[in-house]
Design brief:
This protein is α/β, with parallel strands linked by helices. It has 9 helices and 15 strands. It starts with a strand and ends with a strand.
């Protein structure tokens, strides 16, 4: 089977983690990292391996172009250079993953970097109306909402003088998890949660905890990554834990959840292999319990419960002042990785024990 070219869209800052996951699933892929994207080539003879967990969206690359500018002349230029496509090849490729009905609704999503004298809707409509002439489907403009759920989604992305046209492989973006039937303020973006679990390098039999688990996104993603690990989610409040249990059940995941204060964790000394958590204190969620006056009790507990060779993968929010204090608690940040998340710029810290 002929290899197809793919573009995986990611959060900024975790492109290299996504590339590692792609390399794991497709050893011969040779992923190429770009801004919020990873490109690779692969066959579709094993469609289950396409279900990547650290990326937001996955597109079959149909065509790339150069020579796009900011003027309105580019609207016609996009139509003339992106189209026509080979509809038989595209639909045949997609049919390796999911069944294609005789007729369907489709949409086009446009995006660009930099200022342009045209908007995304003009890009979408010129490409969509032309594609309608070539495909056995009806174009549905995003300006009209989603009256009919689109079965196919095309993506046009422009930057500098370049652009690409792609077709989403799945019916919906990969970042949408079916298990997330309940959520709350501060609930973590699933691909980011999975990327953190990936960084933790969880092994069979290891004990993994999330002391601030909320509705359970990190424990669920960690257990999905390594089903043979023992994963436990904890939270100070009982309501999010009930939602976490519901989400885990929906995901078909066997993870344990219990109420606990992160300043006094219910585990013996040096009993935990990995801690993976989002620390949203006084941002999306107010501090509570032992942590009302700061994170010092938590850092003491991290040092106490982690095994000598254990580590913590933590998403932090404007907590640079904490780094200088960690040594007092026998901890060290070995790696920092800034990510872009809904207009914010939190950091992923890899924390290990000094003593």
């Amino acid at each position: 089977m002929k290899k197809l070219k793919f573009i995986a869209r990611t959060l900024r800052g975790i492109e290299s983690i996504a590339a590692s996951e792609i390399q794991r699933n497709f050893p011969s892929a040779s992923p190429q990292i770009g801004h919020r994207e990873v490109r690779f080539s692969a066959e579709l003879n094993q469609p289950e391996t396409i279900n990547l967990k650290t990326i937001d969206d996955l597109f079959i690359l149909i065509k790339e172009i150069k020579g796009v500018d900011h003027t309105r002349n580019s609207i016609t230029f996009l139509e003339e250079t992106f189209l026509p496509i080979d509809p038989k090849f595209i639909l045949h490729s997609l049919s390796q993953v999911r069944k294609i009905p005789p007729r369907f609704f489709f949409t086009v999503v446009g995006s660009f970097l930099g200022k342009r004298n045209y908007n995304r809707f003009e890009i979408e409509d010129v490409i969509g109306k032309r594609l309608e002439e070539e495909l056995p489907g009806n174009y549905q403009s995003s300006k009209l909402g989603k009256e009919n759920p689109p079965y196919l989604t095309f993506r046009v992305h422009l930057w500098d003088d370049k652009g690409w046209l792609g077709l989403r492989l799945q019916e919906k973006p990969l970042h949408r998890r079916d298990y997330k039937t309940t959520s709350r303020s501060g609930s973590l973006h699933p691909p980011l949660a999975h990327a953190m679990a990936f960084l933790a390098e969880i092994k069979t039999g290891q004990k993994v905890i999330d002391p601030f688990c909320g509705v359970g996104t990190i424990p669920i993603e960690a257990k999905t990554l390594c089903p043979t690990a023992e994963v436990l989610g904890l939270d100070f409040e009982s309501e999010p834990l009930e939602n976490a249990r519901k989400n885990a059940h929906q995901a078909g995941i066997e993870a344990e959840f219990q109420q606990s204060d992160a300043g006094s964790l219910p585990f013996p000394d040096q009993s935990i292999d990995k801690i993976i958590s989002n620390i949203p204190w006084n941002h999306q969620v107010d501090a509570a319990g032992d942590l009302r006056r700061g994170l010092a009790p938590f850092w003491r507990e991290v040092n106490r419960v982690l095994k000598v060779d254990g580590k913590a993968i933590l998403l932090t929010h404007e907590q640079e002042n904490e780094i200088g204090q960690l040594e007092d608690f026998g901890l060290e940040v070995t790696t920092k990785r800034e990510v872009s998340l809904f207009g914010k710029h939190p950091e992923i810290w890899e924390v290990v024990k000094l003593w």
